[in-house]
Amino acid sequence: MEKTGRKSFLEGALVLMCAMVVVKIIGALFKIPLTNILGGVGMSYFSAAYDLFNPIYSISVAGLPVAVSKMVSQFAAQGRYRDVRRVLRCSFVLFVITGVAGFCLIFFGAGPFTHFVNNPGAYYAVVCISPAILFGCLMAAVRGYYQGLSNMVPTALSQVIEAVTKLTAGILLAYGVTAKGISDYEATGMLFGRAVESLERAQIEVLPYSAAAAILGVTASTAAGAAFLWLRHKLKGDGITRRMVEGSPRAHSGKRIMKRLVLIALPVCLGSLTVNLTTLIDLASIMSRLTSAMERAPEVILQMYQAYLPASIENSEVPRFLYGSYTGLTVSLFNLVPALTTTLGISALPTISAAWTRRDRALIKSNVESVLRVTAMVAIPAGLGLSALADPILHLLFAARPNEATIVVPLMRVMGISAILVALSAPINSMLQAVGRVSVPVRLMLIGGILKLATNFTLVAIPSVNIKGAPFGNIFCYTAIVCLSLYVLVQTTHIRLNYRSVFLKPLFAGLMCAAAAWASYGIISRLISSRLDVFLAIGIGGLVYAAVLLLTKTITREDVLLLPKGEKIAKILAKRSLLG
Predict the structure, then answer these.
(1) Which phi and psi angles does 190 have, rounded to 5°?
(2) Alpha-carbon distances of 219 from 38, 121, 269, 494, 543, rounded to whole Å
(3) In whole angstroms, what is the distance from residue 369 CA to residue 54 CA?
(4) Are 306 and 407 in contact (CB under 8 A)?
(5) How far apart, in whole angstroms, are the C-alpha atoms of residue 238 and residue 542?
(6) Confidence (pTM)
(7) Which residues make Cβ contacts (< 8 Å) with residue 361, sequence separation at least 6?
(8) Which of 213, 257, 387, 485 holds its CA 20 to 30 A away from the CA of 241?
(9) In this structure, what are the phi and psi dihedrals at residue 335, rounded to the nearest 5 degrees?
């Protein structure tokens, strides 16, 4: 049973991880060329709007789809198909109310918000993203409904349509508006009806419009996803026949169903708020503290970045340039690492929850160690690799923005370390929920958020530190969260973790991987002048990592069995005593 539970968890995690990788690749294909188009200043406008949208969107749609899915699955299991249909109608009403409220909050709050975060140029982008809340809510209602009916196809297809639309529409609109603005200026000396003194200045002043155009691509993607789901629902239906409906009991009142939906959704919404807390903290604090640093000692910051700043940039725009470079370049890559491990805890949650119910301590220990070990094996080499190859990776991906890439290289080196901590925190939080400690992750996130806010408030405002202090907020925040949450998990389950197997072996292998990648890049880049040098270095690092994992017997037989022809590979490795 122990091996079966572990294997099913790993198989489920592998499938979910592959799906997450695909989604993140599409996201990277959007963010990387967009950053090359907008640069640091433009990305500050885009990020301000997007980072405001994400928490409000998450709060708006996090709880209700879960509630819809749960109630639909319960009613369907009981054969109450009239109630199933009524849940959809009631959820639609609630989602429309929530979506309109979210739209009004962002649309009418755009002015005060952009002034609060010292980024008034983001106004148009914030306004353009406000309808996405409404479309997203409509989309979430149908997703939750079909998930409750155990049909994941509509959700998967809508996510693909949403991602592809965002990629194509966002990039084309941003590029089109930028090209149109500069072309009109070169022909008339006017930028969208306003006189601008130079081409360099026009290239900066076109960015609020370009960022707003990119944001319109995000709004268009939510509209396309919602339209697809509702059209599919009308054309293909939900699989519930008229006979099934006629044979089901009389439905509960709409008022009763709405009340249950709200009661189930509310705790999930509050949890979603804490998950987005760190993004909100960065949004609210980094720009304002950079502005304070710039006002306190502009000569210090200008001396540090003078060679990299765009021509004709004003002093008041320097904080936006630094903030946009940070969010546009480093945060985009940083988020890839936690995305690989978030699904590990989700996949293990049912198995650990069942073992906890039976008080099977051996199975709990086995699964907890497996989750942590596999998470460490994925996150550590990825994070350390980002740190070791920060310079060549950033300059490869953002070749059109070499100045911004140069500025954020030191930030990326720190962010690679914090990415490991963030990647570990999500599975640990899922396991805490599995053993009944649901409120602990929320409390620890609040503690971590306070540390992050204090770090941003203190370090970023120091002129000689400025934006370089922002990544340390993540380090302090997630170090506290991981250490405290792991302590609570161990104390709650009364297990003794094998820290050597779980953390130290993957850490040693990860360090060897990063060192090999760094050294090989240094040698290869001197021998050949090609973009292949980065990929070759990553490949060599990966080979070294695999070799060290095998030599230290970190990989187990269960891991290998997940691979194609895993039985044969496992036998070969077992003969050479390379499996743990």
Answers:
(1) -120, 140
(2) 18, 19, 22, 48, 42
(3) 33
(4) no
(5) 46
(6) 0.80
(7) 493, 494, 495
(8) 257
(9) -70, -20
